[in-house]
Amino acid sequence: MKSNTRNEIQEDKIAAIGIGAMIVFIALILVAAVAAAVIIQTAEKLQQNAQKTGDDTADNMAGKIMIMQGNVATASAAAHSVLFTAGEAYLLMVRLAPGSDTTALNSITFQLFCANGVVEGTMGTVGMGTAAAMTAHATAVTSLTPGVGYLIWIDGDGGGADCSPDSGDASVELYLHVANGGTTFETLTIDNTAGGSLVV
Predict the structure, then answer these.
(1) I need a surface site. Which of 49, 110, 126, 149 has the fewest CB within 10 A?
(2) Parallel, antiparallel, or unpaired for β 150-155 and 125-128?
(3) Which of the four pLDDT bands, split at 50, 70 and 90, describes residue 76?
(4) φ, ψ for residue 26 (rounded to 5)?
(5) Which region holds residue 176: left if phi is over 0, alpha if psi is between -120 and 50, else beta?
(6) Which of 70, 69, 72, 88 has its CA nearest to residue 195?
(7) Is the pTM of this model over 0.85?
(8) What is the pLDDT of residue 35?
(9) Are residues 44 and 111 in the same domain?
(10) Which residue range is the domain that position 180 belongs to?
(11) Is the same domain home to 144 and 174?
(12) Strand 125-128's sheet: what is its strand order?
């Protein structure tokens, strides 16, 4: 009788050890599953952040306007949407940065900073042309296409302050902003106010 009782007790201990091992095993599986879920979630979040940062960087770098050349503009023609006299505006030869998308003209704004104040506005007159046609007035367009050069006229005396080439300032700071894109900064150096004189 006594020996039978001892055997039953030993068998109960073995069963208890097996149940304990199973509980530990299940707990390890649960911990591993939670850890895997956290790692996957973190990896997805990092990937999304990296993609957003890459997209923002591409927009800021690609969605910019590159200024190839700048001159003092001559008087505008009657066909222009922006009217100005000689020495009052700037004529810039520009193109979109590589990798840019087609950009609507009304999404481009400018700021001129000078000693007299600030002139701000939306891009008004843009024409297709080449450096040889800087003094000619080209056909107006409504959007800029990558890989194509454009002539941009900016009236420096149209927003309250006078930041035009003949305002007396030796330099004017120009900012070109593209909506949902980048910003281009250029200092316009004014050595001569005659039409066609280089400022960039």
Answers:
(1) 49
(2) antiparallel
(3) low
(4) -65, -40
(5) beta
(6) 72
(7) no
(8) 92
(9) no
(10) 64-189
(11) yes
(12) 65-72, 89-96, 150-155, 125-128
